[in-house]
Structures are given as structure tokens and as C-alpha cells.
Amino acid sequence: MTLFWIASIILVVFSCVLIALPVMRQKANNDEALRDELNKAFYKDRLTELEEEAEEGLVENQQDLIDDLKQSLLDDIPADSKNSQENAISPMAVMIPSMLLVVGLSYGMYYKFGAQQDVLQWQEVTSNLPALSKKLMSPEGAQLSDDEMRDLTLALRTRLHYEPEDSTGWLLLGRIALANRDVDTAIGSMKKAYNLEPESNDIMLGYAQALMLSQDDVDQENARRILGNLVQKDYVDLRVFSLLAFDAFERQDFPAAVRYWSIMQQMIGPEDSRYEMLSRSIENAKKQMGQQVGSGQSVSVTINIADDVTADPNAALIVSVHTADGSPMPVAAARYPVGSLPRTVVLDDGNSMIAERKLSSLESLMVRARIDSDGNVATKEGDWFGESEAVTMGEPVEVMIDKRY
């Protein structure tokens, strides 16, 4: 805003200079002075002629002729000459009111038609960006009103105009566009954030979400590639598997959809209110596959940890279902981050190791759970583990991790 006022003052001063220059350069009217000089020259010439004529004896009343010449000279001076000089307008009397008129008109027209209120509102919104961003990122961020969302978008665009390398700003703008179903803006903003920080998990997820909304097959394929990279990086976020599941369902890849929704169930546990909704989605996908959905097709496993066991929350928790005789080869298995224990996970046919041998085909089973500390499933030395008793399919299973390889 300071720059605007400086620029406006410079323009107004320049306009005033344009008005002042012609007035200051205006030359006085020299008609009267030229007339007086001409009369004087004529008078002197006539006096010289009278003297010559008097010397030659041609003139007898020289003084009378001189008096007549003087009188004719006086008669040639206009009566209003003195008044016109007295009434001459000073240049300052013209210049100062003109300048005041320019200043008054300039700022008066801006006040009337210059959208001053919009500019002031824009400045207020821009200064309020931190508060709006904090409110959006908070758990109750969805409660932002439409006006607040518009204000936040305007403030973000202003900031990104001056700070185009702000990846967080582009990510936030993309999320707002996603909320407003503005696909083009969402993809464009997320792409800029992704180009600035291609290894950021949050940005990768946001970019994949935007690409999934595109009708372009290439965009959707790129989204699957990004989501696959997130899964390989063990990025634990329900939205990753949710996007993969719905995408698989839309492509009629129902087994993949079941697998992803089953993983989501395992991540949230049966006590979560979303668990039943995911169960209905799984049943719908299985019906699409022509499968009969019955009871006893999933195994619920509650995992506890002994008091003397210390587990890194970032380590991997590997849960495997085996035949009741404890065969080393698992029938089904799943991998989770350890997180906080105790916790409950659910395995079903989507976790089966071999397509020809489903988990639901078992009549009895036992479960093993292991904390993989080095990220290599093949190595077990130093890992903590536990195993359950043999149970009948459909019964809940409990595993206590209290042993070490």
C-alpha cells in the first residue's frame, strides 16, 4: 500500500508540473511596448525634420508644430492601457487553483471509483493469513465458512505471488481447491508443490488426490504410481489405502479393493466407527466378484506386549496366521507399524499368501506376531515375538509378545 501512495503522489506531482510549465513560460504581451517604441522613433524623426525645415526657412511656427506632434503622440495611447496593466492576472493565480483542482479530482475520483474498500479488505485478508491457515489445519478446519475459504484463497494467492517457492503454500492452496472440487486449480497447485518437494509424503498424497479427480487416464496412472511409492515407503495414512481401494473398485479390480479396505480395517480396529462401513464396502466388492459372504471369514487378533519388552514405535509389526499345527509357512500375513500396543488387527482372505488357499478355508488356526526391528522380514535375530494357542476359525485370538529370538 505504501508503494501505491508513493506512485500516486509522483503521478499527481507530474500532472501539476505539466500545468505549471506553460504558465511559467508564458511571455508577457509586448504589443503596448512595441507601440510606444514606434511612437518614440516617429517623434524623434519628426523633430529632426522640423529642425531641418526651420533652418531652411520652410517653417515659421516650429513650436506649434512640436506641440501638435506631442499631442498626437498622447492621443495614440489607449485610455485603458493603465487599467489593463493593473488588471493583468498573475501566473500564480492561475497555477495554484489548477494544481489544487488536479489533486482534488485525482484523489476524489479514486475515492469514488477506485475500489478503495476492496483494497483495504484485501490487505486485511492478507494480514489474516496465519490465523486462517491455522484454523484450516486444525481438527475443526472443515468448519471454515465459504467467505473464510475465499479469503484464505485470496491471501494464499497473494503470498504465492511474492513467494512462489513456498511448497507449503501451494499444498494448502491445492487442499482448498480439492475441498471446492476445483480440479484444475488443485492439480496445478499440487504439481507445483510436488516439483518443489517431490519427497514430501504429505505433498505426494495431496498430488495423488488431485490427480485421481482428473478424467485423464495419464493423470490417474500417475496417481496410482505415487500412491504405490507411498505404500512402499511404509507411509501410514488411511487416505492412501482409501484412494487405492476406491480406484480399484472403479476399475472393477474387486480383489484389490477388498485387500485395501481390509488393510484399512486392520489399521483402525473394530472399535472404530468406520469399521462397519468398511465391512459393507468389502461385502459389496465380494458380491461383485460373485462370492458368498458369510461369517467366520476373518480373524480378529488382539496383540499385547510384556512389561519388560521395549518396542520402537517406528518398527514393523508382522502378524501371520498358520495352521493349528504351527506350520512355519503362513496361510495369511500382514505388516503394520508397531504404533502403540495393545492393539487389535483383523486378517481375512485379502491377506492370504496363496490365492488357491484362502484364510477362510481353515477350520482351526494359530497366530504369530513379531516386532521386526531392522525392516528385513528374513532376519529374526533379536526380534521379539509371541504366538497364540490353536483356536477355531471365527474365535477371537490373543497374542502376548514376550519372547525373543
Characteristic terms for this protein:
single chain; 405 residues; alpha+beta; Serine Threonine Protein Phosphatase 5, Tetratricopeptide repeat; 6-stranded antiparallel β-sheet; 56% helix; 12% strand; TPR repeat; TPR_rpt; lyase
Protein described:
This protein is of the alpha+beta class and 405 residues long. Helices cover 56% and strands 12% of the residues. It has helices spanning 2-25, 31-55, 62-75, 81-86, 91-113, 116-127, 129-137, 146-162, 167-179, 183-196, 201-212, 217-232, 238-250, 254-268, 274-288; strands at 299-305, 316-323, 332-337, 343-347, 364-372, 384-387, 391-392, 397-401, 403-404. The strands form two sheets. Strands 2, 3, 5, 6, 7 and 9 form a six-stranded antiparallel beta sheet that branches. It has a three-stranded mixed beta sheet with strand order 4-1-8. Strand 2 (316-323) and strand 3 (332-337) form a beta hairpin. Helix 10 runs antiparallel to helix 11 (201-212), helix 11 (201-212) packs antiparallel against helix 12 (217-232) and helix 14 (254-268) packs antiparallel against helix 15 (274-288). The radius of gyration is 47 Å and the shape is rod-shaped.
